[in-house]
Design goal:
This protein is an alpha/beta fold. The chain has one domain: Rossmann fold, CATH 3.40.50. The chain is about 35% helix and about 25% strand. The protein is built from seven helices and seven strands, in the order H-H-E-H-E-H-E-E-H-E-H-H-E-E. It has a seven-stranded mixed sheet with strand order 3-2-1-4-5-7-6. Helix 4 links the parallel strand 2 (about 60-65) and strand 3 (about 85). Helix 1 (about 1-10) crosses helix 4 (about 65-80) and helix 3 (about 45-55) packs parallel to helix 4 (about 65-80). The longest helix is centred in the middle third of the chain and has 14 residues, at about 65-80. The chain is globular. The relative contact order is 0.14. Bound molecules: S-adenosylmethionine. S-adenosylmethionine (SAM) binds next to loops.
């Protein structure tokens, strides 16, 4: 999985690379999310992290693909902002520590297998200080049998969260609010969701 991501970032541009995501920019521009200590979990080439730094946030951004972090650092340099970029694995952190006021995950948790999701929850929840917010964007639908078969031969470990799964993973530690999403879409993806969770 790590090799797959690293190779894609090094030699190409994965399809999810693009400007900072609209749900995040909307929440920042409306003042719902205000400058604070934020960690971007699985930051890829850093567009969300750079956007947050440009809007006054103190940003740490982590990804296990070193090639993505190299591109992200260059983006931050060109934008003239400071971001603490780290290469680390969210299922067994060795470099990231401390507490943050805001956690952001765009399309990482849903990529993980059930075992990796459990490890991620164990590693990531302690990073959320009291009252911290956690913005989670994920694919969300119940995978059909053929989709499970396809996933089993691809380098991805996961595809989408099942409806209700975000609450099951995070409901013990966070108040979980689904703030946006679509389901039953024709084509692919078949659904997606945005959660804004608050640590209790
Ligand atoms: C679908 S991409 C999304 C990237 C970025 N959040 C964005 O919105 O463009 C998933 C990202 O998660 C990273 N990733 C996947 N599993 C990871 C893990 N266990 N630890 C750290 N990063 C991981 C991948 O390298 C990739 O950059």
């Amino acid at each position: 999985m790590k090799l797959f991501y690293n190779t894609w970032y090094r030699y190409g541009t994965p399809p999810w690379v693009g400007p900072a995501r609209s749900d995040l920019t909307g929440l920042v521009e409306s003042g719902t999310l205000r400058p604070c200590r934020v960690i971007d979990l699985g930051c890829g080439v850093g567009d969300n992290a750079v956007f947050l730094a440009q809007h006054g946030f103190e940003v740490t951004a982590v990804d296990f693909a070193a090639a993505a972090i190299a591109k992200a650092k260059e983006k931050a340099r060109q934008a003239g902002v400071e971001v603490n970029f780290l290469v680390d694995d969210l299922t067994r952190l060795t470099k990231v520590s401390g507490e943050f006021d805001l956690l952001v995950d765009y399309g990482v948790f849903d990529d993980l297998s059930a075992r990796q999701r459990a490890a991620y929850v164990q590693q990531v929840v302690p990073l959320a200080g009291p009252g911290a917010k956690f913005l989670l964007w994920c694919f969300e639908w119940e995978p059909r049998l053929w989709e499970r078969a396809v996933i089993s031969v691809l380098p991805f470990d996961g595809l989408a969260l099942m409806p209700g799964e975000a609450e099951r993973w995070f409901g013990t530690d966070f108040d979980v609010e689904r703030i946006s999403g679509e389901s039953g879409l024709r084509g692919w993806p078949r659904g997606w969701a945005v959660y804004l969770m608050t640590r209790h």
